[in-house]
Predict the structure.
Amino acid sequence: MRKTIIVSNRLPVKIAEKDGEFTLQASEGGLATGLGSIYREGNNIWIGWPGQEISDPKQQEKVIKDLRKMNLVPVFLTQEEINNYYEGFSNETLWPVFHYMSVYARYDQGYWDAYYQVNKKFTDIILQHAAPGDVIWVHDYQLLLVPGMIRNEMPEVSVGFFQHIPFPSYELFRLIPWRAELLEGMLGADLMGFHTFDDTRHFLNAVSRILPVNTSANVVNYNDRATVVETFPMGIDDKKFSELGHSKAVLEQIQSLKENFREERMVLSIDRLDYSKGILQRLQAFELLLQLYPEYLGKVVLYMIVVPSRDTVPQYKELRDEIDKQVGNINARFRTLSWHPVQYFYRSFPVEVLSALYNFADICLVTPMRDGMNLVSKEYVASRNNDDGVLILSEMAGASKELIDAIIVNPNNIGAMTHAITDALNMPLAEQQRRMRQMRQMVSKFNIHHWVKLFMTRLQEVNTMQQNMLARRVSPETAVQIRQQYREAKRRIIFLDYDGTLVGFQTNIDMASPDPDLYQLLRELAAVPGNDVVMISGRKHQTLGEWFGHMPLDLIAEHGAWQKTREGEWYQLPGLNDHWKEELLPILEVTTDRTPGSFIEEKSFSLVWHYRKVESGLGELRANELMGTLRYYTQEKGLQVLPGDKVIEVKNIEINKGKAALSWLHHKKYDFIMALGDDVTDEDIFKVLPSKAITIKVGSQVSAAQYYLRSHHEVRHLLRTLKK
């Protein structure tokens, strides 16, 4: 029976040890709440690390049994693995780079080796439980290699991946020595989710610049699989926080807060101890408020909760010491006998206390330097049942893209944050309510359950799209049908493009000369009685003649401008001229001078601008500029501008691979016609051939051709099976 497997670094349980015995308690985290509806159903499971080392086999066995009752499966890690994979690579390499704090990053080969091994350990556990037809949803930056590892072992299984922290810009991501391996691992997923469009864009940019992949809009084609990259802003369980405000325990806490803060207005700040959270800048902004606006002395309190996290790590210990110091300085400078400006707590609180604070605080100050989503801001909004209160939110938090009615600030601008606090303190109730209602609607609609449903539905759609693409690919069954038609035919013609179809692309176009294997293949194919093999290419006729003139092939060069039968000499298509080159060549030269790595290739009746060697991004930018300019100049000259694979070609409109192919079909009657090509120019052949012809596009699914193949390797394999 089909099942869903959730995979994350941590299981949604809290595990506690007492007298050598382990007890389990379900976690109340946002992700655990959202995915509870999935992993608790039927035979679905959640795979992850229990949260601490359990080395005794008997204890492991007991924990496995206890967890299985909750549909949970543990991955046991040694202390060394925890140190190097989790504390090391995940939190000392990926975390700082992904949060734009690359100065803190440490690139250690030992960390990477442990990260790879633990990702493999997770994959092995997944494979023990996964079956064909299952859906596997992998979560977060600790398991970036898992999707690719699953794909290698189970190619047909459905894999989703969601990243809960930001994805950095290419310039930062490229600093990681193992960047290509990380991207390849992520591309094992069918659907990849990020919190914001910025993260999606950064990922697509990194992939296109680091790996040899084709990207189109939000689809990455890699290893003949389409990975769809989408934005899914994560929500919270809004009803839980709304209802908590009416519970007896929370109402008692609120009453206690009212008694303690009768005159003061509360600015609430809740964070985990981390350098990405902007805690020090927040304290500076509050201190500046007290300096510039003495009327708020004794009337405003910053209630700051910092949840302990990794404070044995030097950067975190320094941060904690600096927070202690700043809080001490502010309190020492401004406090009175009855008033402490900063109420600072370095510990975690139960959800009932947090709910009371959300309900009581006039302002919630959420100003991280960089954050994937930040759910504290949404929890505050969901808790405000009276539609009052003000949220001050950093533009660097993913939530700022949704909660646009908050006061949005740059967390590096201390003065702007101070002004934001004064604006919030003076905001009329009607304005507070207008803003809060809009945000509450947003949080309610796009809640955690909506997020889960949206992702799973989209994953299903992506899998359907992939199946439809597979139906067009030359499958083993399709290849059998093609071979059968080929063998039953008496007269056959096969049109073959060269670059990208029979050989791979080379940075230097002269390096893509035929290899002995290709010569042998073409010789044997052309030697079969009844076969006509036509090489139809955009290459210069001199080059094509040099490479294939001695072989029993028909040759069509420069898209049809030059043609040659196997026994005859080259002849030129009549009525062509090249006078237009004098006007257009300078335009191409100007673009070449501005674009290092590009060059111009001149053919008899066409000009080609190549940009395969140009830096990614710059080449596409210049190509778009050049296309616009050339179209303007060529409109009334009987010329055609053709974009290709890292090339732009200008040629006479009469020159057309489709017309050239049709002229070959007029000579004889064929009962088997096949054409293979990879370029825009090959589409002209696919369009003009009769419906019974077999047309195959190489390297892309978007085509007028009936079928597609992934690469020139697959083309050669198909041709070999024909000659047999």
